[in-house]
Amino acid sequence: MVEHKFYTDKYHGGSIPSADWPQYEAIAARHLARYKRIFTVTVPEDSADAESMATCAMADALYGFDLIANGEGGAMQSASIGSVSTSWGSSGANAVDISPAGQAKELYRCACLYLDIYRGVG
After folding, report:
1. Could you tell me where the beta strands, DSSP code E, fall in 48-115?
2. Radius of gyration over alpha carbons of the chain, in Å?
3. What is the pLDDT of residues 91-118, one digit of tens each?
4. What CA–CA distance (Å, rounded) separates 32 from 102?
5. Alpha carbon distance 13, 28 (integer Å)
């Protein structure tokens, strides 16, 4: 289990509140465990914290997907200075793919930032 302190101090994450961390960390850890079952996953020799870093990256992505799905995140579409107004959302070329396939692709990409994942036959 990766602690929220590792997320903030070593990974330097700041988007996931500590109260929400256990939920997102657990989902990310399950994804990583699945990768380890179906792929060949190795930790680079120079990175003892690679699995924890991958878990943090995937948790960040999952949190971002939830923000977008709830209309609270994504690319900013408009902003005003007077009376401070913002509008979040995705449109056109700036849209984030939050479909199950899009999420799976992004989670795999996040894991590959820190781990060597081989998908072929060994």
Report:
1. 76-80, 85-88
2. 16
3. 544 567 888 999 999 999 999 999 999 9
4. 17
5. 15
